[in-house]
Design goal:
Elements lengths: L1 E9 L2 E6 L2 E9 L2 H10 L5 E5 H6 L5 H10 L4 E4 L5 H9 L4 E4 L2 H4 L1 H10 L4 E8 L2 E4 L4 E6 H11 L3 E6 L11 H10 L4 E4 L5 H8 L6 E6 L1 H5 L4 H8 L19
Parallel strand pairs: 1-4, 1-12, 4-5, 5-6, 6-7, 7-10, 10-11, 11-12
Antiparallel strand pairs: 1-2, 2-3, 7-8, 8-9
Length: 258
C-alpha cells in the first residue's frame, strides 16, 4: 500500500487544516520545497500536493511552488486544488505533474470529468471529500446533497484512475480513519481508493492495509507526519514501499492503478 505524504499549500507555506477549516490552519514550514525533499529522503515514493488557495478561489495560486517541487523530486507528484477546467489540468501535466486531482467539477461539471478521463487516460484522479456522507466542494466550504458513494460510482463509470476519499470530520484530527465509510466505498466501486483523513499511527496504517484486498491502494498522511506521530520510514517498513517503486516514469498514472 502506498503511503503518500501530503503537502498542503496556503499562501506559499506548508500547512495543515483542522477539519478543512481555513481559519484553523497550522503552518508547519515556510519552505514547501524543503519539505518535499525531506519526504523523498525518508523514502516517499509519491507526493500529494494540494493548492488550498486554488481550491478556495478556483485559480492556480501556488503554481510556481508546485512546479518547483515537481522539478526537484524524482518521484511522481499528484496535484489537486482548484482544477476546474481543461486548461488547468493540461498546464499541470505539462509541468511534469503525474496525475491531476479533480474535485468540485465532479459535481458541477461532470461532462468535464468524462472528457478529461477519455483524453488523458490514467492521469485523472477524483477527490471525494465527504462531510456526514455528503460531498463537499469549493475547498470544503460548501456541502452538497450528493452522497459520496453515488458520486464515487459516477466517476468510476467516467473512467477515473482512482478515487481519493477524505472524511473531512477526521481530516487533521489524528482521530483515525473512517474505516466503515471506506469499506462501504470500496464495496460500491471497482476502481482503486486512496484513503485520507485522520491517520494518526502505524496501527491506523495497518488497519487500512487490511482493506487493501478490497481496493484501498494507498493512504495520504498529513498532520501525523508533521507532528512526528508517524515516522515515514517506519510507516513504509510497516506497510511496504508502495506500488510506485517499480513503475517506470513513462507509466506514471497509467498501469500503476490498473
Amino acid at each position: 500500500m502506498d503511503v503518500i505524504p501530503a503537502i498542503d499549500l496556503l499562501e506559499g507555506r506548508c500547512v495543515r487544516l483542522y477539519q478543512g477549516d481555513y481559519s484553523r490552519s497550522q503552518v508547519f514550514d515556510d519552505d514547501p520545497l524543503a519539505v518535499a525533499h525531506q519526504w523523498v529522503e525518508q523514502g516517499a515514493t509519491r507526493l500529494h500536493l494540494v493548492d488550498l488557495d486554488g481550491a478556495r478561489t478556483g485559480q492556480p495560486v501556488n503554481l510556481n511552488t508546485i512546479a518547483a517541487i515537481v522539478q526537484a523530486v524524482d518521484i511522481p507528484v499528484q496535484v489537486g486544488g482548484g482544477v476546474r477546467d481543461h486548461q488547468r489540468a493540461e498546464d499541470l501535466l505539462a509541468r511534469g505533474v503525474a496525475q491531476v486531482i479533480l474535485g468540485t467539477v465532479a459535481i458541477e461539471q461532470p461532462h468535464l470529468v468524462t472528457q478529461l478521463c477519455q483524453e488523458l487516460p490514467g492521469k485523472i484522479l477524483v477527490g471525494i471529500d465527504a462531510r456526514d456522507g455528503r460531498v463537499a466542494t469549493r475547498g470544503w466550504l460548501n456541502t452538497s446533497e450528493v452522497p459520496a458513494i453515488e458520486l464515487a460510482q459516477q466517476v468510476a463509470r467516467q473512467g477515473a484512475a482512482a478515487i481519493i476519499y477524505t472524511d473531512i470530520q477526521r481530516d487533521g484530527t489524528l482521530e483515525g480513519p473512517n474505516l466503515e465509510a471506506l469499506r462501504e466505498l470500496t464495496t460500491a466501486v471497482s476502481v482503486p481508493v486512496i484513503a485520507s483523513g485522520g491517520v494518526s499511527s502505524i496501527t491506523d496504517l495497518l488497519s487500512l492495509l487490511a482493506l487493501e484486498p478490497q481496493g484501498v491502494s494507498g493512504v495520504i498522511v498529513g498532520r501525523a507526519l508533521y507532528t512526528g506521530d508517524i515516522s515515514l520510514t517506519e510507516a513504509l517498513q510497516a506497510v511496504g514501499p508502495g506500488r510506485w517503486q517499480d513503475v517506470p516514469p513513462a507509466d506514471f498514472g497509467s498501469s500503476a492503478f490498473a
